[in-house]
Amino acid sequence: MTRLSVPKTYKLYIGGKFPRSESGRTYEITAKKGGFVANASLASRKDARDAVVAARAAFAGWSAATAYNRGQVLYRIAELLEGRREQFADELVAVDGLSRAAALKQVDAAIDTWVWYAGWADKYVQVAGNGNAVSGPYFNLSTPEPSGVVAIVAPQDGDSLLGLVAVIAPAILSGNTVVVVASERSPLGAISLAEVLATSDVPGGVVNILTGSPAEIAPWLAGHADVNALDLVGAGDIDWVDLQILAADTLKRVLSPEPGVPARTLDRVVAFTETKTVWHTKSLL
Question: What mean pLDDT is reported for the chain?
Answer without folding.
Answer: 92
